[in-house]
Design brief:
It is a single chain. The chain has 246 residues and is mainly α. 69% of the residues lie in helices and 5% in strands. Strands 1-2 form a two-stranded antiparallel sheet. Helix 5 packs parallel to helix 7 and helix 7 packs antiparallel against helix 8. It is globular, with a radius of gyration of 19 Å. The N and C termini lie far apart (57 Å). The mean pLDDT is 92.
Length: 246
């Protein structure tokens, strides 16, 4: 009997991540009474971070890949500011595409060091770029700040499909989301006991989706690629319009 394997394509992961992100942003703007939306929304960022690394690995032109991301980061800035603060200019929080651009930049430095074939150079570069990426993420106020950049690096350094990589991914994401980012908590009653759960820790539920990915891209078209980019600023504009005029 043929064994049936279930996996998720990169296309499916993008759709899932966009759906989770939309729920989170709907909670932040027009559905604030439904806290489950932002709780589910925590799953989005690690999937996007993982797919950013996959994009780096599989792109035929890193320059074009980063160029597209830079273009949409610029396009998204005003919609992001309007959704977040109601103002066109808001210097204290930048959209997540800038986070991924920082992540891609430090990945590029690590990739060049690895190609030199010297383990000590790779180790020094890994430590140095992790610190550099974290600091840049903090001082530029990008979404998820320096912790977001570290999340991208986690998926780069632990990209192999091996059991020990999965364990380290889980441990690293736990530390980043529960210890570093922390944030809101919510109470849970279990067997007569009350527990406080760090809401950001729900980001760890992204890992099962990521682990179901086996490298299949799914149906890949330019239209879908640009839809994914355009969806980011477009849904923010729609949510801002609903907040403002409805």
């Amino acid at each position: 009997m043929k064994k049936i394997k279930f996996d998720l394509t990169s296309r499916a992961l993008h759709i899932l991540a966009m759906t989770f992100m939309l729920l989170d942003h709907m909670w932040a703007t027009v559905c604030s009474d439904y806290s489950w939306m932002t709780q589910v929304g925590r799953i989005a960022f690690p999937i996007f971070a993982f797919m950013t690394v996959e994009g780096f690995v599989h792109t035929s032109s890193l320059k074009k890949y980063m160029g597209r991301m830079f273009l949409f980061a610029v396009i998204t800035e005003i919609p992001f500011n309007l959704m977040l603060s109601g103002s066109i200019i808001y210097p204290y929080h930048q959209n997540v595409l800038w986070t991924f651009l920082i992540g891609l930049s430090v990945i590029y430095l690590n990739d060049r060091a690895r190609k030199k074939g010297k383990w000590w150079l790779s180790l020094i570069t890994a430590a140095g770029t992790a610190l550099l990426g974290y600091v840049i993420g903090m001082i530029t106020f990008v979404d998820y700040n320096g912790a977001g950049v570290l999340t991208v690096l986690v998926f780069y350094f632990l990209r192999e499909r091996k059991w020990w990589c999965y364990i380290l991914q889980l441990a690293a994401l736990y530390y980043i989301n529960v210890e570093m980012l922390q944030g809101l908590t919510f109470g849970v009653e279990l067997f007569g006991h009350s527990f406080e759960i760090v809401q950001q820790g729900l980001a760890l539920f992204a890992l099962p989706f990521i682990w179901l990915y086996r490298g299949r891209r799914g149906k890949k078209t330019k239209a879908f690629q640009y839809f994914c980019y355009a969806f980011y600023p477009a849904h923010m504009i729609v949510l801002w319009l609903i907040m403002t005029y409805m």
